[in-house]
Amino acid sequence: MKSTTIIILMLLTVGTAWGQSRKELADKAFERKEYYAAIDLYNKHLEKDRNAANNGEVYFNVAECYRQILEYKEALEWYNKAQAAQYEQPNLHFQKGRVLLNLGEYSEAKKALDKFLETQPNDKDGLRLKTNVDFALSVKNDPPSLFTVINEQLLNTSMSDYGAYYFEDKVVFTSSRMEDSGNDKTYMVDGQGFSNFFLANYNNEGKTWDKPTKLDGISSTFNDGVFTYSADTKMAYFTQCSGEKGEKCRIMQSSYNASTKLWNAPEPINFPGEQVEMVHPTVSKDGNWMWVVSRKADGKGGSDIWLLERRGLGWGEPVNVEVFNTEYDEAYPVYFNDTTIYLSSNGFTGMGGLDLFVSVKRDGQWTKPSNLRAPFNSNADDFLMVFNKDKSEGYFSSNRNGGKGSDDVYSFFTTPINLTLSGNVKDVDGLIPLKGVKVYLTGSDGSLDSTLTDANGNYSFVLDKNVDYKINVSLPEYFGDSKKLTTQGELYSKDFSKGTGYDFDFALMRIPKTEITIDDIYYDYNSAVLRSESLGSLDKLVKLLDDSPDVQVLINSHSDERGDDMYNLKLSEERAKSVLDYLISKGINPTRLTSKGWGETALLVKNAQTEEEHQQNRRTTFKVVNQ
């Protein structure tokens, strides 16, 4: 900051000698885009002239300075001062709406933009920002993200830190911090230091970042940033902007010696054709393709993304990748895995400032960029996304609220999905918790797990993703039971339990010594063929036997007392066997089954008179015979 103070004092001294007022000096600094210096000069003017009515334009210009250096809260404060001072140029409402959008105050942003559109109803920029407000409000209803985002506090400072890029087993990023940079000059546009490359190592043993160190060999005394690297050619490419205001930017290259860990002196790339400024390179792994950002006159508008192909030792003419570009700004492309480009844009519909978008190559064509939404995008500027090889984690940059400085490095990783199952087992009659019940968990992936219920009858398991499970419960002297669940398609952590709306509790029935009637077993008159309405009850018996693999049963069939005794006995035997045959057809082992027809020898209602009483006698039952 010391150098800025010296320059301002010089401006004041010279200005006084030439008869220029502080406001005139501030206006000139503003015109030269020396925003940081202009803020100080405007404030010195306001110390002398405190009449708000005279200073609406000054307040607005200060707000514009803060907006240009991305200090949105301060910008909003000064826009409000300008508005209170009756500075009513339509542009105030437009810029205020833009800043409110960048601050995530969407409802207020909508009001400011509506105010602007009252006088400029067809302004395409105002309408675009209004569309962004509506989009930002709509994505609040998106489901939770599959990724967790973390501000990398140990990499970030109060200055700009951005552009993390995987390099060997470390990370290279750009920072405008002054400490450890070897350069104490202030960049007059934003009041920060000149940006350099820093190398960061994650210490796996200590589970923390070692202190970042300046990447010597390619960092200069000017602004260096946005590092990209071809692993095949061992060549790095980056942007360098020279001059006190970074007025001339170009793409540099430097080869790397993996054995010595040293870089060759960077040199500028001379691209063919007209000499226009190109920045923000990203390069393919083989080094044959490079995407750059430029404001070439034959582009679509604003800054566009262009593609260059290596030609021998040089590069071919840049080609506008039209599907990536709008009439506004596209920047910070990152090429990944030969088929994917991540880029930032304020031209496609987004949530605030620059948003992150992704485009994939299909059948040789790039798709229209798709908004990555939250948590990667916010109301602020989000840019420079990189993934690791398996796309499970990566980094991006953002100046969103809650960071340490203007731009910060954020990491992200696939949120672990924790899937659990919990339930309870009771006695069906007394509803008493059953301790020591064996609970088996069988998975479609071949997994098998088991546990015992505790004193309260509770059990639990940890589940895997995309598996179909069967839960079996077993306890001596009780019929077993089972239920099914699936984790197919589950994207978020979940506990399958009563508390979350799932029922994996069991109520077990003690095996009785007496017969158990099978309800709703029907035959046509004088027939042993099961009617279709009987099959539901028999399927329940099939499940019971499947869940109780050690149980052996006797199938009994009884008739009423009408008709000949021997006829009733034979018919009941045939009916018992038809049930047995059905159970066998459903996969029950025949060695577990026997059947017997009792005719009218075991009546429940003797001398039955009504059809209901005859039906009670005409029944099918089973009895466990090995308990």
Question: What does this protein structure show overall?
Answer:
- The protein is α+β, with helices and mostly antiparallel strands and 627 residues long.
- It has four domains: 140 residues, Tetratricopeptide repeat domain (Serine Threonine Protein Phosphatase 5, Tetratricopeptide repeat); 268 residues, 6 Propeller (Neuraminidase), CATH 2.120.10; 90 residues, Sandwich (Immunoglobulin-like); 109 residues, OmpA-like domain (60s Ribosomal Protein L30, Chain: A), CATH 3.30.1330.60.
- Helix content is 24%, strand content 31%.
- It has eleven helices and 37 strands.
- Strands 8, 9, 10, 11 and 12 form a five-stranded antiparallel sheet that branches. Strands 13, 14, 15, 16 and 17 form a five-stranded antiparallel sheet that branches. Strands 18, 19, 20, 21 and 22 form a five-stranded antiparallel sheet that branches.
- Helix 1 packs across helix 3.
- The protein is elongated and about 125 Å long.
Summarize the helices and strands and which ones pair or pack.
Blueprint: H1 2-18, H2 22-31, H3 35-48, H4 56-68, H5 72-84, H6 90-102, H7 106-119, H8 124-138, E1 147-151, E2 161-167, E3 170-175, E4 196-200, E5 202-203, E6 208-209, E7 213-214, E8 223-230, E9 235-242, E10 248-257, E11 262-263, E12 267-268, E13 278-283, E14 289-294, E15 304-311, E16 314-315, E17 319-320, E18 330-336, E19 340-345, E20 355-362, E21 365-366, E22 370-371, E23 382-387, E24 393-398, E25 408-414, E26 419-427, E27 438-443, E28 448-452, E29 458-463, E30 468-474, E31 481-486, E32 494-496, E33 506-508, E34 516-517, H9 535-547, E35 553-558, H10 565-585, E36 593-599, H11 611-617, E37 620-624
Parallel strand pairs: 26-32, 26-33, 35-36
Antiparallel strand pairs: 1-25, 2-3, 3-4, 4-7, 5-6, 8-9, 9-10, 10-11, 10-12, 13-14, 14-15, 15-16, 15-17, 18-19, 19-20, 20-21, 20-22, 23-24, 24-25, 26-29, 27-28, 27-30, 30-31, 34-37, 35-37
